[in-house]
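Record type: monomer structure entry
Structure origin: computed from sequence
Chain ID: A
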Amino acid sequence: MLDRYPNIDLDLFDKDANPAVRLFGRRFFSDQTTLELLVELLLVAVSPKKVGGKKFSNMLPPLDLLKFPWTDTLDYAPHAHLNLKLFSFFGASKLDTRHETHRSQLERLDEELQRHISVNDDTPENIVKTLENLFLGFHGVGIQRTWCAQSFMPICPGLLALETIWNETYAVKNRPDCWDDLVSQYTAYFSVNKHRFLARGGEVLYLQLCNAMNREQEEIEAWLNEKGLADFLTSDEKNPILLHANLESALNDLMKETPATVSQLAEFIDRGVEKETAQQTDGDANNPRWSKCGWCPKETWPESYLFAVEILRVCRARMDLMDKLEMLELLCTMHIIRSLAAQASRYQRNSSLQIWPACRLAISDPDGNNRTVKQVSRVTVQAVSKTIYAGLRHPDILNQTPKSLRDKLYKEADRRYGHKLFITLGKRIGLIVPRRGGGMRFVLNPRLLRLLIVILLPGRRMTYDAFKLAAESHFGLAFDETAIGRANAWATGVDITSFGGATDEWLVKMLQESGALRKLSDSCALVENTAVLDDQEKMK
């Protein structure tokens, strides 16, 4: 049985019954969108939290708490923001999901807001309509769902909300008369712990960060040196104490980039004109409504430490907030793909080898012109899938699964938590094409390339060859002949040395078109991250 972080008991009859959950943690799930992974991660970060009886409101747990072994769950107290969601999303929700009590509460909110508005050259009604359009413009995901199950873009703490699902069947059966009936029986009319959309993936990501930063510096540096990653991190990034402080500061700064007026308006709409709803859904400061995180495998700390460094680099990048959020969304997905492969590789028959990177992704040119590379890329897609499939069937995990339930649980593991999750995530971000049909292969699009430039360069610039090596060291991405040969050897045991010409010309062209490549000579080029200040700019 693998070690867990925090070291809580397994629930083998419910939450941890599936073998994929026991291997990867509670849980990464195919129904959770890439944006919702980021939303949930930031929701945990901004919410009040506690471990055992120790409460804290920082983005990350204090160092003294991180260093103390956790035997209790990490609990957090997110807000539901029901009034704000109703105000923003009701008008854009499907007609058959609108209950009369919802409509009457929206009318009440509109009337109360109009009473608080005083203008000279417009009407309060128009101002309220403008505010509705403003917050609808911050819509993130879930447009086909009931208004309360939708999510905002995570641009500030005031827009980060707990998953809330309308229990229509219960409402039809009990016929509530008014909104007050709903909130007085909040957990009967609304489900807050089903984890259908905020499906715990962001919670696992948060726990992985905590797990990584409670390691000792000597252990981290030894691993980085052994795996050839030391040159790709700065001295501050190799120090978990400094990384913890810098990441805490960077996440705080990220959540403050949106003007404070937006959060203030959101707070006023949600609980300023009508307080009873928030009191019923969220509790109060002394007795909030807690949600419990699950756990992550303790041994995933190496890839999680890289994830912490990469998040820090995105947060510090010189770009606007929406670009940073897009980068973080892609990064969360790339990290989960890396984490699935790395953890599964630890449970192979030859897991004692512990190679890094755990998987090799041969990246073919977007048009698929090089047939040999295209075929190697397809083989590596299959190899990663097989690694995850085999890891789930390690004897220690297989034997924990009751024989009578194995077929059912393993089908679910493969389809929703395992190798098909890897394929689904890869297709969602454009790492795997085509979206439908056979012949799946790895490619790189401009969005992913931009992410790599931001997260792989420890400074303003690095050589093109170092950039390719960093991409391979962080994520197993293979671009040139040598790296693709290694990828094929990893996947098939056969080393290929000839590919009928350069395999990375398309990457050079893509970097040039993005303005990120500076050629110094025919044999030397620099990749530049313009989102990082150079030394002269820092002096100014």
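Annotation 1: Residues 469 and 532 are 20 Å apart (CA to CA).
Annotation 2: The mean pLDDT is 93.
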